[in-house]
Predict the 3D structure of the following.
Amino acid sequence: MARIYLSPPHMGPEERQLLLEAFDSNWIAPLGPMVDAFENEFASYVGAQHAAALSSGTGAIHLALLLLGVGANDRVYVPSLTFSGSANPVAYCGAEPVFLDVERRTWNMCPMVLAEALEEDARKGTLPKAVMVVHLYGQAAEMDEIVPLCKKYGVPIIEDAAEAAGTLYRGRHVGNDSEFGIFSFNGNKIMSTSGGGMLVGSNPELIQRARFLATQAREPAAHYQHEVIGYNYRMSNLLAAVGRGQLRVLEDRVAARRTNFNDYQEQLGALPGLSFPIEPEGDRATHWLTVMQVDQDVFGASPEDIRLALEEQDIEARPLWKPMHMQPVFRDCQTFGCEVSEDLFANGICLPSGSALAADDRQRVIESVAAVAKAFS
Ligand SMILES: Cc1ncc(COP(=O)(O)O)c(C=O)c1O
């Protein structure tokens, strides 16, 4: 039996055709017609006004921070339960990430913790330069509560929607409720260009500035004039071709991942001790990864027991992201709360969630998890 992977890439004939078109046109270098088209098509899909195609989601976050003027010794709020790609760019700017706890309902930044943190920092005169909201595992954060709080204190928001292409919050795409939204097209994402990212926003000058910074901040002079530090963050024309193809099938990919989730929830959710996140009304979680919570006392086995048992069956599962405040590299950073992040991490597991996961493979996963319950009873 073939190995079942957590979230492998899922390419089709459209992507192949567009890639060959780009290849045959000899537009290999960064920039080119595929990049322009991908930016326009992606912006139109998510309902953004402007978009810049970049080499990674991490690069997109870095540029968003720079465009908001984040620099040495500034503070930026980041939810603790996330991938390091959210927090690392804060450090690239010489700023300090401050880790906030998440809420149980969405697993994203807790508005109550955010309110406390902003109030305390306003009192102390140490308000953050930006708040980074993450839409984790394809579930939107509670923006209707977060946005007014940040507005009250005049702090801009970056939405890290790296894991949330196709995610809807109250019926609209994430990434537009803030100064900047960023998306990732890393190899394991719901749509992939092997590696890549997108920065979206409503201010055309700032998005143009992002494109400029991403091409080594090269001034328009034949001799390559440079007046500020730049970066090599642009997406290549070849990869943009793949992205255009992936975008065309994104709605199908969302449907497939939601089918994975529904099937897991229906069958595994019936077992004592296993539970799944509840989708808030009006939202569409993509379930980029299906995440399951394990009540170890009731189920009898821990998430790690389940992971190891699945591994024996050649099935790849994974713990949740280890919270950032628990990472040695960020151990000196300030935190607000973070108990919920720790608890979700300790009791959670990500199940195979690829959009090409066949029904019988998914059944194999379900039966393997059910077998763990029996083995430990
Ligand atoms: C939440 C989150 N933020 C940022 C990133 C960084 O994106 P990239 O890998 O494209 O740099 C990722 C994914 O890789 C992510 O999951």
